[in-house]
Amino acid sequence: MRVVIAGAGSVGRSIARELIGNGHQVLLIDRLSKAARMKDALEQAEFLYADACEIETLDEGRLDTCDVLVAATGDDKVNLVVSLLAKTEYGVPRVVARVNNPRNEWLFDDAWGVDVAVSTPRLMTALVEEAVEVGEMVRLFQLQQSSASLFEFTVPAASPVAGTAIRAITLPQDTVLTCIVRDHRPIAPTPDDTVEAGDELMLLTTPDQEQELAGLLASWRSEARQAGRG
Fold this sequence. Notes:
5 helices
């Protein structure tokens, strides 16, 4: 997979390092000359020292041949412009954009060519909420094109769902159990798998079903607490 990353700061370089480690081809675009000093640390990456908001730069970077564009600069305006150009001018299949200021998050949608918006403050909030209490429903992120959201729910001890086969669990309409994380390892769930206490459930659902899903998970948490008191 060929990935173009706009922004060779600490975030862009970290993403590039992970992608290269996974065998992907990476081009980093940054207009700051100081980014050239970072090239030695990422020998397998290509570098283009230019303004990512310019069509000439994106032509030179062969954006029409990339599979994913990551707008990872520290400037939301730049990330939006690069995302829009990538999607409308080059038809990049997937555009991922970094949101620096939470107040700008509403702008990062398909109207600006963004498929997935990543807000560091939102992710940090999710991690804090996840650590508050087992059994809380935590929103991890929202997909911009479909508006579906991925939620995490850690199954409490004594929860009524613990030990239940997935085929016997009724989830709200348009809600999918995408993954179970058990003992720090992801599991692709099958109907015959059982849910165990301490499992982290990754659930994808639509905005219309969020309230129903929250109610279901709250009932699992409430019954677990009652069982614990008993």
